[in-house]
Amino acid sequence: MDKTAAAPPRPATRVWLAAEFLALFFGVVGAYALAGSPGSPIPFLLVGAVAAYVYLRRQPGFERRDLTRAAAVPPALPAILAGWAVAAVVGVVVLAVARPEQLLDLPREEPLLWGLVAVFYPLLSVYPQELIYRAFLLHRYAPLLGTGAGAATASAAAFGFAHVIFGNVLSVLLTLAGGWLFARRYQKSRSLLAASVEHALYGVLAFTIGFGDLFYHGAR
């Protein structure tokens, strides 16, 4: 458990944390989007993830095992896979009806690229995002947001808003739902690895069945 929420923070501290949270997760991302989302977001993401990791490693109230805790993954897998299977069926049906030409387009047309996405997306995108939007956000702002559903909602809102850079409302809505799911997984399992596995499964699913254009910077 985090120790950051052990004592009620002073009002000034809450104001500062709220301002910092809004500036980092909405101000910076909003400015990047307004600037036309120049370049790939991956370098910015990696820098942010390194900064989050260094910060968390230096926090005496943060349990470092939460950054992996591999033992928590197997017990979480049945629930993760059940939700993923439902999403896969719904996604395939929606695409087959609405955009049949895009169904499985990436593995069909560019199998090598699809393979590279399946391998490197979890490493270069998923885990860095989980470091920032789950481990860092939920620890740093626990004195402001608490450690329950309210904090998960804030994590989901920040995560969803980050996807405005793709210029698509659907990508924001889908990642808003995903952000809630991954935040609750992390809160329940205390395992960033479990949340990352779930995130990676949904992300690779999106690229596989034909929703990749919603989450690919170069597709704008």
From TrEMBL:
Q: Where is the CAAX prenyl protease 2/Lysostaphin resistance protein A-like domain?
A: 116-202
Keywords attached to this entry: Hydrolase, Membrane, Protease, Transmembrane, Transmembrane helix
- InterPro entries annotated for this entry? Rce1/LyrA-like_dom
Report the domain of life of the source organism.
Bacteria
One family name in Pfam for this protein: Rce1-like
GO process annotations (BP): proteolysis
Q: Which GO terms describe its molecular function?
A: peptidase activity
Q: Does the keyword Glycosyltransferase apply?
A: no
E.C. numbers: 3.4.-.-
What sections of the protein cross the membrane?
12-34, 40-56, 77-99, 111-129, 141-159, 165-183
What is the protein's name according to its record? CPBP family glutamic-type intramembrane protease
Name the source organism: Phytohabitans maris
